[in-house]
Amino acid sequence: MSTAPLKQELEAYNESLDSCLKDRFGMTLRTFKTIKALTQLVGAAAGIYAMSLGAAPLASFALIAIIISGPEALEYLIESGGGQA
């Protein structure tokens, strides 16, 4: 049973995602990853801020989960071909 090392799998995945992003949206992988990281950071900060203002912890964690999982779902759709324009 021989599989490609993780580094090679990640390189292939990133190249494929970069190609999809460039073809469909005119965006590079670096730009997408930056937007994704910023969105997730803002989502986590918004949830923590909401809790500091007295929001229910479960609602805050739900907000964080939704905001953080959004870019992950988008990346999956782009890579799987669901985001075809």
Explain what the structure shows:
The protein is an all-alpha fold. It has one domain. 80% of the residues lie in helices and 0% in strands. The chain has 3 helices and no strands. Helix 2 (29-52) runs antiparallel to helix 3. The chain is elongated and about 50 Å long.
Count all strands and give the number: 0
From N to C, what is the helix and strand string? HHH
Largest sheet: none
Q: State the secondary-structure class.
A: mainly alpha
Query: In percent, how much strand structure appears in the residues?
Result: under 5%
Q: Indicate the percent of residues in helices.
A: over 70%
Question: Overall 3D geometry?
Answer: elongated
Write down the overall mean pLDDT.
88
Regions with little confidence, pLDDT below 50 for 5+ residues = none
Cα-atom radius of gyration: 16 Å
Number of domains: 1
Tally of alpha and pi helices? 3
Rounded to the nearest angstrom, the distance between the terminal CA atoms is 38 Å
